[in-house]
């Protein structure tokens, strides 16, 4: 029989590509939406790549509520918990992010373990496995945990760390057969399936549209959304992945290098991309008047990188080059006419 997989948050950027990947591999997919009105948007997005047909179904469930989760997991073999509660990642109130992220993950796990689901693959973040010090350099791996009690952490980073820790603590105290695997991605870019939820892709949108005066001295570990979907599915099916964390970061790329890749890869369409690197003091001064910018100033000049050797060795995962990803992302935005 064809296995059925539940993907949480079907309207999300990553979830859309996960659904596509599962359908292309022949799985039946059920995905959660917060209201039936969202179903058409998900079908339309997925249909830009593959025909979902009757193998895509929906369940109404919200990470901030207990209702609907038992029905969502009924009869499924695996759960890919990709969704994160909505919120402003630059908010000053850490609890506004931590509580829904942690409680949402626990709702999914409680329902999944009660239903006897084989495996839950949960999306965390590479910044849940990073040194607390923003000045530390070198390469780290999945054995490192970010200290959630570090007072210098921005709320978003703390929320991802707390949520993942809560998930592992829950599974450790549960005696059932459900296994947990977590995926820790870096900066997620790549083609879009819809203009409804651009997420992290807005950075590329602003660069191509010429809405940035220059590039800050910030390095990103860029992972293609298609490769991120692939590693979730590999982690779901690999026996060796049970009970493991996997970093899913791409190659370390400075923002200035991203700009240069866009200029080269897009030709005339990339004429507005800024290639001038902004001095750190300019970024810090601008952050006094721009709260979203304030959250990234701590990363200026940071060179810490993550190793994906484990994902490559255990899962056979091979992410594509960062330049290919950002150019594909930009071309997609141009095709959708959002730049």
TrEMBL record:
<protein>
    <submittedName>
        <fullName>NAD-dependent epimerase/dehydratase family protein</fullName>
    </submittedName>
</protein>
<dbReference type="Pfam" id="PF01370">
    <property type="entry name" value="Epimerase"/>
</dbReference>
<feature type="domain" description="NAD-dependent epimerase/dehydratase">
    <location>
        <begin position="5"/>
        <end position="242"/>
    </location>
</feature>
<dbReference type="InterPro" id="IPR036291">
    <property type="entry name" value="NAD(P)-bd_dom_sf"/>
</dbReference>
<dbReference type="InterPro" id="IPR001509">
    <property type="entry name" value="Epimerase_deHydtase"/>
</dbReference>
<keyword id="KW-0560">Oxidoreductase</keyword>
<comment type="similarity">
    <text>Belongs to the NAD(P)-dependent epimerase/dehydratase family. Dihydroflavonol-4-reductase subfamily.</text>
</comment>
<feature type="region of interest" description="Disordered">
    <location>
        <begin position="129"/>
        <end position="151"/>
    </location>
</feature>
<dbReference type="InterPro" id="IPR050425">
    <property type="entry name" value="NAD(P)_dehydrat-like"/>
</dbReference>
């Amino acid at each position: 029989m064809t296995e059925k997989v539940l993907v949480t948050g079907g309207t999300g950027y990553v979830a859309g590509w996960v659904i596509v990947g599962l359908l292309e591999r022949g799985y039946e997919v059920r995905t959660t939406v917060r209201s039936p009105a969202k179903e058409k948007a998900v079908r339309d997005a997925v249909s830009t790549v593959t025909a979902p047909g009757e193998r895509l179904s929906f369940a109404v469930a919200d990470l901030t509520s207990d209702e609907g989760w038992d029905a969502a997991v009924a009869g499924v073999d695996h759960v890919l918990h990709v969704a994160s509660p909505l919120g402003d990642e630059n908010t000053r109130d850490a609890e506004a992010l931590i509580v829904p992220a942690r409680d949402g993950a626990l709702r999914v796990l409680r329902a999944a373990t009660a239903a006897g689901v084989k495996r839950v693959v949960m999306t965390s973040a590479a910044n849940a496995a990073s040194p607390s010090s923003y000045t530390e350099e070198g390469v780290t791996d999945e054995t490192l945990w970010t200290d959630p009690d570090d007072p210098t952490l921005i709320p978003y980073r703390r929320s991802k760390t707390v949520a993942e820790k809560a998930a592992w603590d829950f599974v450790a105290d549960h005696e059932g057969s459900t296994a947990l695997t977590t995926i820790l991605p870096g900066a997620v870019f790549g083609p879009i399936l819809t203009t409804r939820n651009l997420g992290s892709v807005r950075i590329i949108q602003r660069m191509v549209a010429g809405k940035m005066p220059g590039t800050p001295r910030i390095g990103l570990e860029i992972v293609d959304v298609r490769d991120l979907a692939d590693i979730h599915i590999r982690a779901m099916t690999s026996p060796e992945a049970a009970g493991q964390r996997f970093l899913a970061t791409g190659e370390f790329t400075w923002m200035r290098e991203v700009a240069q890749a866009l200029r080269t890869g897009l030709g005339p369409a990339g004429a507005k991309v800024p290639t001038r690197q902004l001095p750190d003091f300019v970024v810090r001064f601008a952050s006094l008047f721009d709260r979203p910018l304030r959250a990234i100033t701590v990363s200026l000049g940071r060179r810490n990188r993550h190793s994906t050797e484990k994902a490559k060795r255990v899962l056979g995962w091979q992410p594509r080059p960062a330049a290919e990803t950002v150019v594909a992302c930009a071309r997609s935005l141009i095709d959708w006419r959002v730049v």
